[in-house]
From TrEMBL:
Residues 16-100 form the HTH arsR-type domain. Residues 67-86 are annotated as: Disordered. This is Transcriptional regulator. Pfam families: HTH_24 (PF13412). GO terms for molecular function: DNA-binding transcription factor activity. It comes from the Bacteria. It comes from Arthrobacter bambusae.
């Protein structure tokens, strides 16, 4: 399988925005949470028709990026499943990075 090439000059926030908004699964999770937060991972997986393992992987990545939050910190769960909600401030921050890219002029247009 070919390796994905990521340009060195890609800003960190832009990379994070691509990881979150460029994934149908992660976008689906965010849309599900609009109407159903807080929600358990099992409910999210069921609603999206995804496996629980796949859903957990996406939720962990999204939580690490800060676009979702849980009611129980990762190190304190001890068998208790967390409920997830969106973090609107972080979502807007990443969308702002995308908007900044759209507003930038090409070097020959400056």
């Amino acid at each position: 399988m070919p390796r994905l090439t990521v340009p060195e000059y890609l800003p960190t926030k832009m990379g994070a925005a691509i990881d979150i908004f460029g994934s149908k699964a992660r976008s689906g999770i965010l849309f599900f949470l609009i109407e159903n937060e807080p929600a358990y991972a099992a409910d999210i997986a069921s609603a999206l028709g995804a496996s629980k393992i796949s859903t957990w992987k996406h939720l962990n990545a999204m939580e690490e990026e800060g676009v979702i939050v849980s009611d129980t910190p990762q190190g304190q769960r001890r068998g208790r499943p967390p409920r997830y909600s969106r973090n609107p401030a972080k979502i807007l921050d990443l969308l702002s990075a995308v908007a900044d890219l759209a507003r930038q002029d090409r070097p020959d247009e400056r």
